[in-house]
Sequence to fold (281 residues):
Amino acid sequence: MISFGMSDKPSVRPQEYDERYYLENCGGSEFFHLYGPQVLKPQLAYVLSRSGIIPGMRVLDLGCGRGEMLLHIRRRGATGIGTDYAEPALVIAARVSDCPVLQCDAKALPFADNTFDQVLFVGVMDHLHDWELEACFREMARVLRPGGQVLIHTCCNRMYYKNWTYRVRRLFARYLKALGLSVREPSPPRSGEDEALHVNEHSGWSLRRFFRRIHWIARVEPRPNYKLCLDELYGQPLPQGFPLTPVLGWKRRAYLALLWRWPLRSFLAREFFCVAQPPAR
Fold:
């Protein structure tokens, strides 16, 4: 495997991920407060719907966080094992899932070769530099059984969601202010937490480039704002107190019919889902 990362970029310290982060700031915390692990946030629900997990499978949840996915893996009759970089996550995940969890670095997995049928890697890529991802995917290739796959979900589309729309909204706000209107400029797209923890946010292009460089076969699927597809994930009616308001009616139909098409969807994607397999051994 070709090394292309900058190993002098330091890893995010595990101390940055404390209990408060997982219970209050980590994505999906509003779902966890409302429903515990019973109702997954849309990103997790989509990954689970695409996982094809069946009884008897062995699944590694790499970067398991609060452990909601582990619970649903176990409910499907599979064996789920969770790992995380930060100890506070494991305390919560063990309680939530009743599955085996252990603390480890994703760049050095404590498992034998050919152990797992599938690896889940959800909301983790943005927290690792390229040199770390290279080592991590090398380890995933080692612990996967032949024919196994990695399911990946990223946090955001860096190019569109964090850059382009912010610039357009800021320019528009400044234009309105120049006309004498009282308008507040949008907040910067990267919070202090983003700066500290999301050290390697991606676009569709950067994801495809990464997989080509490590010689993995990957299908990168752009995903819209999940408010557009809540029905297909949760059915109707939505759980009581659901924290997202679905886009309904003509707005949803118009967006999906007119804008959510190739190549626009690569630009407009909110996040990305990937199914990846290592090169043949």
